[in-house]
UniProtKB/TrEMBL annotation:
Protein name as annotated: Beta-ketoacyl-ACP synthase 3
MF-aspect GO terms: 3-oxoacyl-[acyl-carrier-protein] synthase activity; beta-ketoacyl-acyl-carrier-protein synthase III activity
PANTHER family for the chain: 3-OXOACYL-[ACYL-CARRIER-PROTEIN] SYNTHASE 3, BETA-KETOACYL-[ACYL-CARRIER-PROTEIN] SYNTHASE III
Classification via InterPro entries: ACP_syn_III_C, ACP_syn_III_N, Thiolase-like
Beta-ketoacyl-[acyl-carrier-protein] synthase III C-terminal domain segment(s): 220-308
Gene Ontology biological process terms, A to Z: fatty acid biosynthetic process; secondary metabolite biosynthetic process
Pfam families per the UniProt record, alphabetical: ACP_syn_III (PF08545), ACP_syn_III_C (PF08541)
Biological classification of the source: Bacteria, Bacillati, Bacillota, Clostridia, Peptostreptococcales
Record keywords, A-Z: Acyltransferase, Transferase
Enzyme Commission numbers on file: 2.3.1.180
Keyword check for Transferase: yes
Organism: Mogibacterium kristiansenii
Length: 309
């Protein structure tokens, strides 16, 4: 099916860099445990920034790549997040206000935890097939206030960040997608009124090491592509071991797989967004390249896209 081009990109993160050593002030842990189990070396906490601040910062950087005319033709603004600052208005409407985007633009939030940004790409592509022209898609999370800082099994894993892209309909582009949900409330959740993330880590791990490569392989089959046809792989940056396992199972060359989990930890819906923005910024992916992005998370959900950019 027809695809999308990326016209602009940007990212932002929390204002306080917290190393694994720093995490020892909260819980009994070590740099060695965190690195060997997850690949995480540090994360950012947004102490003096709201989720909206980070989303707007990333969004403004993405929009700065556009001409004023292109900016005036943004007709969709979607924010993927499970940690909005407010129940309403939506983060998307608030970002529109910050960026001076108004008028005939649809603004909405997507809540699908770590699959959120990939689902946002699917949604954006579907909207374009029904006439939308240009969509600002942001993945943004402020997870630090949702963490139990006395639970070492979870608090070392997450961080705060935002990533954004401006997408434009591309009739010559390629787009394949796959989504799935295996409802399970009990192994990963966060109650709105008792906002501490709870997770049965090993069960999420088991889900992810099969869901990610299965999703990737099915995407290749559907698109009639081989693993070598893809220029860049971006998996949800939750855990280096999960990513390495998918890379091994799928037979991907390691240098094609983008990694930044060491710098940010797991930033949920922001993870694939930040990785994609960093890839573009460093010119590690360019116009016309084919990329695969796969997310997974609470729900449990998973989703992937295989697209030219
Ligand atoms: N520092 C030191 N020791 C720790 C820490 C820590 N931060 N956390 C746990 N431990 C200890 C435990 O207490 C336990 O010790 P015990 O046996 O004496 O009780 C031991 O380490 C092993 O704990 P497990 O929880 O069994 O460790 P596991 O090998 O499963 O690794 C991890 C935990 C890294 C969380 C792993 O299960 C994992 O990566 N799961 C997937 C999680 C994930 O990807 N979540 C995100 C997806 S969804 C989303 O992003 C919202």
């Amino acid at each position: 099916m027809a695809g999308m081009k990326i016209l602009g990109w940007g990212s932002a993160h929390g204002d306080r860099c917290v190393s694994n050593e720093d995490m020892k002030q909260y819980v009994d842990t070590s740099d060695e445990w965190i690195r060997s189990k997850t690949g995480i070396g540090q994360r950012y906490f947004a102490e003096n920034k709201s989720n909206l601040d980070m989303a707007a910062e990333a969004g403004a950087k993405a929009v700065a790549h556009l001409t004023p005319e292109e900016k005036s033709e943004i007709d969709g603004l979607v924010v993927a997040t499970f940690t909005p600052d407010m129940a309403t208005p939506s983060m998307a409407a608030e970002v529109a206000g910050r960026l001076g985007i108004s008028g005939k633009v649809m603004t909405l939030d997507v809540n699908s935890a770590c699959s959120g940004f990939v689902y946002g790409l699917v949604l954006a592509n579907a909207l374009m097939s029904s006439g939308f022209r240009r969509i600002l898609l942001i993945g943004s999370e402020k997870i630090s206030p949702m963490m139990d800082m006395e639970d070492r099994r979870t608090c070392v894993l997450f961080g705060d960040a935002a990533g954004a892209v401006v997408l434009e309909a591309d009739p010559d582009g390629e787009f394949e997608h796959l989504e799935g949900t295996e409802p399970n409330h009990d192994i990963l959740w966060c109650d709105r009124f008792d906002p501490n993330i709870r997770m049965a880590g090993q069960e999420v791990y088991r889900f992810a090491v099969s869901a990610v490569p299965e999703c990737g392989e099915e995407l290749l089959r559907r698109a009639g592509r081989t693993v070598e046809d893809v220029d860049r792989y971006i998996f949800h940056q939750a855990n280096m071991r999960i990513i390495r396992s998918a890379v091994r199972k799928m037979g991907i060359s390691e240098e094609k797989c983008f990694l930044n989990v060491e710098q940010y930890g797991n930033t949920s819906a922001a993870s694939v967004a930040v990785a994609l923005a960093e890839c573009l910024e460093r010119k590690e992916i360019k116009r016309g390249d084919r990329m695969m992005a796969v997310g997974f998370g609470a729900g449990l959900t998973y989703g992937g896209v295989l697209m030219t950019i």
